[in-house]
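Section 5.1 Outputs to date
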Amino acid sequence: MTVPAEVLDQCLLNEPRGQEALYKAYSARMYGICLRYAGNRMEAEDILQEGFIKVFKNLSHLHSREALDAWIRRIMVNTAINYYTKQLKFQNEVSLKYDSSDATIQEDALSKLSYNELLRILQGLPTGYRTVFNLYVIDGYSHREIGEMLGIAENTSKSQLWRAKASMKKILRRIL
């Protein structure tokens, strides 16, 4: 998505007209990202608003206008992580040996679900599970990177992912 250079220039000057145009251009897509991390729509809206405040505040640090999409997306993901890091302390959990056969979710089962149904399942997971699942499966971070971002051990990240998949599998068996 490209926004006119004048919109970015207006945002850099803290002009509401430019900020509104940038918000309108990106808010729907970024809200979708926030929903994946949030426990409900109200939290997602809070994360979105906080994220856009950071976007407007730090726009002068954007190195390339072509990287705007990825830059805003990264801010939203980091804002979601910070939102939960402030509110929750992750418990130190004993790492479980990962057994891929127990956590496999069949693709045909997933294809039967709508986006909203899948989102509801994801939002129903405990915060730690949901956050690690999003970062690893959807956003592609490694367990080492997740551990650094969340201040947890790499094995805790692996354990949280395993448990998230196992929980999702259990829910899917019930509803399908």
